[in-house]
## 1
Amino acid sequence: MPGDLASDDAFEAVLLAAQSGAQWACTNLWVDHAPAVVAFLRARGSHEPEDLTSEVFLAVFDGLDRFRGDAAAFRTFVFTIAYRRLVDELRRRAKRGHHVEWDDELDRRRSPSAEQAAIQQLTDASTRALLEGLPPDQRDVMVLRIIGDLTVDQVAEVLGKRQGAVKALQRRALESLRKKFSGGRTPGAASVDSRE
Amino acid sequence: MSAHRITDDDAAVVIRGQVPEARDDLAVVAHAVAVFRRASLEPAPQPSAALAARLDLERAARISASADERYATNSAPAPANRVSVPGTRRRRVALSGLMGLGLAAKIAIGAGAAALVGVGGAGAAGAAGVLPEPAQVVFNEVTGHPGNNVSDTGLENSEFGQQTAEDARQKGEEKREAALENAEEKRQAGLENAAEHAVNGQETAGEHAQVGQETAEEKSQAPDGAGDAADGAGEVADEKSQGKGPEGD
């Protein structure tokens, strides 16, 4: 497709500039990928997805010199780093428990704006509706496929699994969801069970 | 139907938030995926201080907003069960990257990158409205620029051309200002230099005048000495003439 060729070429130009340290190009890569990364980290249970996203991109920019590939390969590269950072955070929390310092912004007793609250509720509800009850490896596949917008091959690379294994996890996740929703529960009306 | 195995093709469709053909049993799952995908779309978060130092935050806000606006505009008429593909948004921002290229970078990337996104030199110049008048008229007729029926790509290319022309204009302006500043600095430096030389010259002239005056005074005192000597010689002569008298007697 000519449009894709054009965008691939545009990506190469942006990547080249970012590799030479151009601020505008790093900004473009950030604007292009950060929303999906932060959504992925949030959906997979990071407690500080914004901070972790910044860490991910610092690592991405530090590793740009070593990166070779097109836009799809770059997206895989970004999500591979994001996934590793997420695993690190989850391991750290599992090992020593999780201590949360009080933060005015995070205090749920405060009333956020109606819009913020609605968005947060919608996100939480839709996340719970889709991911609740799925094992972690199936959640990884679903979130990377849906929010990360990655192909099966890309997900396999990010998770370090075989393509067949990713397809099987995806199929099992969809089977579980079909069973769950046909059992009378509708998406968005999930219970308030704990997320990961 | 509900016992049907979910094939890879079915899964791919459901993951996009769409219902595979003749698979109504997957409609609710597809709907849940679509809701999840939509609800998860959010703008880029606030970067940490360390990351912000490597970004252009003003640019981030600008292209983020424009991409979101255009994304929203384009996705509005989509069928209800279709989910906008994030790739569309990514492509737009990537192209906006080309618009942000510096003049040198654009030249360096040259025909390869620029031509593939449909921006030849004439295209950029035509879009910027800087072609000679007859050529501009033809360009407008052929491309429809700057009419209303411009495709997305055409619009992006036009923006790219305008940006290129604007970059060139700004560079020229910067160079002109730099040259003016340089000339002013040199003029100022020349004036200061001349003033310094004038002061030095005055001082030197004053010193020379002083020395000359002293020398002249010294020299002007020399005839008095000669007078004294002459007086002395006269007195000796008188004495001698007086003494000669008695001797002669």
## 2
Amino acid sequence: MKIAVLSGKGGTGKTLVSVNLASAAEESVYLDCDVEEPNGHLFFKPENLREEEISVKIPAVHEKQCSGCRVCVDFCKFNALAYIKNRLVVFDEVCHSCGGCILLCPEKAMNEKEKIIGKIQKGVSGQVTVYTGMMNTGEASGVPIVKKLLNENKADEEMITLIDCPPGSACIVMESIRDADYCILIAEPTLFGVHNLNMVYELVKLFHKPYGVVLNKCQEGENPAERFCEEKGIRILGKIPFDNELGALNSNAKIAVRESEKYRTVFSSLLETVKKEVRHEAAVNP
Amino acid sequence: MKIAIPVDEKNKEANVCISFGRTPYFLIHDTESKECSFLDNSAASSQGGAGIKAAQFLVDNKADILLTPRCGENAAQVIKAADIKMYKTIPGSARDNINAFAEGKLPVLEEIHAGFHGHGEK
């Protein structure tokens, strides 16, 4: 059972919710797909770490064979190639590793070389297996790291898996939710929060993913995100209060479920709600 | 000698465009014939790497000088490799800048920004 947790911007509570849901389960897997700044491991402090480097293939040029025809330069949608003063220049960090230039080169003047873009770290924290994707600074895309993370998880298909997504609704988020059985959208109680919620709401609809919303940082008074959900008929899975105790635990990198009986109850019941939703989905849309 | 300037509109009184890579047009001024032409910048709508493509475009059009308010690191790499000299524009029209350049009043552009990679792309 794969549950993706996403939001339109950073800081809404994706990591809070996914780390605590993973901790509330009897046995679970946590995948940190926010490869630009993974922070779930700061809470889990996983042990028995194993690391694996992730590389992509980029073009290497054999200058002597290059005829200067510029087929590759014209082909590259990301403009990662330039031809200046009879020399082909590759901008490694702009390259998205599609391999098109190498395929099209009539002189076979290019071949693939490996370039390390980051790593995956695997460890254990209590009953949670923690996988963390970490991208090196300055790389074009973390998608290859996310793909690898999701593949790693293939073995534990049946286990409850929380996918902590990157913020926003771009390619890397689409990749992160690709295999998800259910999407939890986290929303803040502000107008800005509604805008961000709408971004991921449109995304999960586009991908035909079943989804529900968790309202975070709830206070007394009006909640624009809640009103948005009511207007659109979106299922609200739960509400997390704007609470000193939770804030203090979280800012000290403590997992609320492991520290507080109150929050163990909150997240256990949220997990049960989500599990029911997933089972219901599986029955209605097999 | 050919001078290239990113401009917002196709005339000499147009303002210099604040973006090099995504400017809609380049003004090309020939210092010998004193003639001006305007080129559509095909890099303007690029998904990514607009600076590289725009720089390649100027190299292919045999520009010797580039007058621009700023330039990103990837574009600068292409422009430097092609021995195109870069000067920093002053506020005003393209014509003002061509005149200021002729009088030797424009400073060499040395400050290269890290680019806006991924912003507006992803």
